[in-house]
Amino acid sequence: MSSPVTDIRLITVDDAGAITAHLRRDAEVTARWDPARTRDYHTLDGQRRHIERMLDRHRHGASWPAVILDGQTVIGQITVQEILLGAWRKASIGYWIGTPHQGQGHATRAVGLVLRLMARDLGLHRAEAVTQIENTASQNVLRKNGFLPIGIARSRIFTAGAWHDEIMWERLLEE
Ligand SMILES: CC(C)(COP(=O)(O)OP(=O)(O)OC[C@H]1O[C@@H](n2cnc3c(N)ncnc32)[C@H](O)[C@@H]1OP(=O)(O)O)[C@@H](O)C(=O)NCCC(=O)NCCS
Questions:
Q1: Which among 2, 14, 54, 75 could disulfide-bond with 65, CB atoms 3.0 to 4.6 Å apart, if both were Cys?
Q2: How many CB atoms lie within 10 A of CB 146?
Q3: What are the chain's domains?
Q4: Cβ 92 under 6 angstroms from ligand 1
């Protein structure tokens, strides 16, 4: 069997079907990490509208929303968000991989690809990310891509009925 290939490309509204299928199947697992979503978020039309809003922010230079691919198959999402230029030239990244595709190095490779895009195509200087303390898989993804922890932000996200502390991460893109 050939080893998996990972790629990223800008999301399109046509990706809504594949993304909705992942979100519905994994809703119970991701509820631990994700903020509560409206019912609409898990519908095809809701995802289409969500992607249109993401692409609108992209047209205004605020983000670079991508799908993660294994060959031609959409297996997750990675987004460069909160792009800030001027004296900062920084952005933060967020990502997920559908459960059947986890544990094969896709997130690690997708973060590597997006860091290259941030440095070369977006001209950014700094990448930031945030993980919950218990999310060791995501912390491994960041460490393997040269991110270092900056510190702990207390009570920063409300998920699964409680406030959770989060670890803040940074990676200087010229390093
Ligand atoms: C975090 C996530 C993106 C990792 O995706 P992935 O494609 O499985 O990651 P990789 O295959 O690149 O593996 C990265 C590391 O995490 C480890 N890992 C994978 N699943 C794990 C788990 N459930 N628990 C602990 N470590 C895990 C892998 O072993 C690997 O480390 P290693 O190379 O030292 O062995 C995925 O689990 C996910 O989508 N989780 C839900 C959403 C989420 O947490 N997003 C990030 C928010 S900050």
A1: 54
A2: 16
A3: 6-125 (3.40.630.30)
A4: no
In the reported structure, the alpha carbon of residue 60 is separated from the centroid of ligand 1 by a whole-number distance in angstroms of 31
- The first and second tokens of residue 29, run together, are 């697992």
Closest residue CA from atom 34 of ligand 1 = 140
**What is the full per-residue pLDDT of the chain (175 aa) written as tens digits?**
566 799 999 999 999 999 999 999 999 998 888 888 888 999 999 999 999 999 999 999 999 999 999 999 999 999 999 999 999 999 999 999 999 999 999 999 999 999 999 999 999 999 999 999 999 999 999 999 999 999 999 999 999 899 999 999 999 999 8
For helices 16-30 and 44-59, angle between their N-to-C axes, nearest 10 degrees: 110
